[in-house]
Amino acid sequence: MQVGYYLSQNWKASIYRILLFGYVLVSLLNASVLPIGPIYRMYNVVCIVGCLYIQKTRRRINRSLRRILLMIFIVSLISSICANNLSLLVYVMFIITAEKDFDKLVKTVFFGQLIGLIGLISFSLIGILPDYTYEHMGMLAHSYGFYYYASIPYYLLFLSLMYIYIRKDKLRIMEILVLFTIQMISYQIFTVRLTFLISTGALGLALVLIKFKIVNIDKKFIKNISKLIFPVICLFSIYLGVNYTTENALWSSLNTLLANRISQANYAFQNYPVTIFGQQIEMHGRASMALGLYSGKYFFIDSGYIYSVLVYGVVFTVMLFLVYSLLLVRACEKKDKQLYIWIISVLVFSFVNDALINISMNPVLLSLPYMLRISKINNKLFV
Q: 382, 62 in Cβ contact below 8 A?
């Protein structure tokens, strides 16, 4: 009976990666123009059930790890209910159930995104899926199977970060140049300046840290900065959002540079309270307005920090940034330059967009169980 009930560790790892690959693909397709909402919601339930089974049948989990994961699950469940957001619970279930081999999980997400993007872009180019176009920065921006022109550049940014991580110290200068060329082409087609700048910065860090090894990230001052940088940026984002005024010329210029994201954050704080466990907030972006799906006032919270505080609540946000701070410090201690570049890029990206917890786009949080395992505080969380 024990053999029949407990699947082998290899089988459970395979089931987990199959669920994860399917979730990445279905999430990407759901973000496109394809009407697969019911399939996406049904697959969310499948993933939750599958992850619960894997977690329940996992044997010999250290008590300390069990308590940490249980706390994360309870807080996330409450926030998911308050925000009426089932996806949050799915993200967290994948995170707390993640296997120890983070490299395999990154490859799973990488190929899921790559296959999905190639398929959608191909079907759009041959006319099966629509290509909605926008005038942006005096240029024509394409969407290629998505509703909004920024969707594909966001995925390309994280594909680049995952590629850098997968290649590790084998990454060559020629590969960095190819990635930069892809981002240049992306900028010409989709006109999204943010992802181009962040990608360029990440590739520059790859040269400095990986190829030329100019800076050692295990220095004490870098680790000390890493402990505080996420909560500091989050608090700065909140401060800007709460105190923004058009009378301040500097803030008005920054707001214009960031496409009115600060003024939108200010509107959010004026109309929605900061809560302990979050709340549901209805938003309408440029795509729904441009396509005639919504005719009211534009309102969208772009900043991942402000979105987390208002939608998921204070408790979840504090927990989230403790996790990110832990991952960044562990990356320093392990001298994992690729992971460090990835997390720093997320830090910058989340100031103006949200991908902090979305593991189908940004799977860096799937490294949490592995990082807890190598923790100096308790290095036998998995036995």
A: yes
Find the domain containing 146 and state its range: 130-214
Q: Are residues 183 and 240 in the same domain?
A: no
* pLDDT tens digits for range 231-248: 999 999 999 999 998 888
Find the largest Cα–Cα distance for the chain. 72
Residue 142 placed within a domain: yes
Residues 242 and 200 in one domain: no
Going along 159-288, which residue ranges are E strands?
Answer: none
**Which residues are registered as beta bridge partners of 284?**
299
CA–CA gap between residue 170 and residue 326 (Å, rounded)? 26
210 plus 225 within the same structural domain: no
Q: What is the pLDDT of residues 323-366, one digit of tens each?
A: 999 999 999 999 999 999 999 999 999 998 999 999 999 999 99
Take residue 382 and report the two structure tokens written for it.
């998995």
In a domain, 12, yes or no: no
Specify whether 151 is located in the same domain as 207.
yes
pLDDT digits (tens, 9 = 90+) for 292-324: 555 567 788 999 999 999 999 999 999 999 999
User: What pLDDT is stored for residue 292 in this prediction?
Assistant: 56
DSSP string for 71-135: HHHHHHHHHHHHHT-HHHHHHHHHHHH--S-HHHHHHHHHHHHHHHHHHHHHHHHTTSS----EE
For residue 308, give the DSSP letter: I
In a domain, 299, yes or no: yes
33's CB contacts (< 8 A; 6+ apart) are: 129, 130, 132, 145, 146, 147
Q: How far apart are CA 383 and CA 370, in angstroms?
A: 12
Same domain, 242 and 308: yes
CA 171 to chain centre: 23
Q: How many domains does one find in the chain?
A: 2
**Which among 27, 161, 174, 12 is positioned nearest to 97, based on CA atoms?**
12
The separation between CA 347 and the C-alpha centre of its own chain, rounded to angstroms, equals 10
